[in-house]
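Hi Y.,

Following your request, here is the sequence exactly as I used it, all 349 residues.
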Amino acid sequence: MEKINLFGLTLSQLQTLCQEQGFPKFTAKQMADWLYAKRVLTIDEMTNLSLKVRSQLNDIAYIGRHFPIDCQTSKDGTKKYLFRVTDADEAPQHVPHQYVESVFIPDGDRGTLCISCQRGCKMGCKFCVTGQQGFHGSLSAGEILNQIFSIPEFDLLTNIVYMGMGEPMDNYDNVLHSTQVLTEPWGLAWSPRRLTVSSVGITPMLRRFIEESECHVAVSLHNPYPSERQQIMPMEKTYPITGVVSMLHDFDWSGQRRISFEYTMFKGVNDDLGHAAELVRLLRGLHCRVNLIRFHESDAVDLHTSARPTMEKFRDYLNNHDITCTIRASRGEDIMAACGLLAGTADQQ
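Below is the corresponding structure, written out as tokens. Let me know if you'd prefer a different format.
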């Protein structure tokens, strides 16, 4: 029988396991405390569980924590971690697509970690290196969380963004369970305002996530004109951005919870004031912010970076029309850690 990975299980899942094994009811909370608050690596470290319970657990389960196999450091201090997400006996070390990357971004007293939720991605966005490599599997909740718990900077983290490899709404249950581990009292008890989960706009799952979670939400927009957006984001055909925005109007964003839109700027494609005006029209009446992102060029994509003055003019237009807009600082480009550049391949090291 295949052993169960305890790391990543919610309290409800741990309670079910304890019931099936005939453990005392309180054991599940004890296990959650050891797994998440105390961050143990082995079942034997759970010293307030009886020897009998620990022995039985060792027979059927393990703690699937593992450390990154590589770290690259940018000249700006950004760190990119490489994690192997399959057991060593499942695939030879050289086989591609068995890895994911996460990026730690220090900024004064803030420490942001950008994490992945899939190996590759199904969405096929033209401008994204991850999307160009295809889809090779979703991560479990434990594999998502392992990127957070297993880096040296864990205690420095102030924010987590689900903006790495993969589409969170295409791995809904595992993403939701991972956010619960981070925010519920039996887990790390972080404020959900420390987490931002992104999506290209898979409308039914995004609606469900907004209803079932209190985390911030970011929507990858990139072009306000549907026909142009579809050329770079194929999912526009299935989930039009107009429908996504309409759905978002059903919720109150005037409090502490934030809805934001990611807008990567491409020279001569989506960066003129006509696009800015259409973006204002699209988002009118929605309490939101827009983050402008400098495009990071790669040989695989025939798109180019907008000039800084063009981005500033676009930003100022939105701010002058009552839409809060900022230009996101680009970090880690020299180590392929910036937005849209994560590939998750060991041979790049």
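The two ends are 36 Å apart (CA to CA).

Thanks again,
Q.
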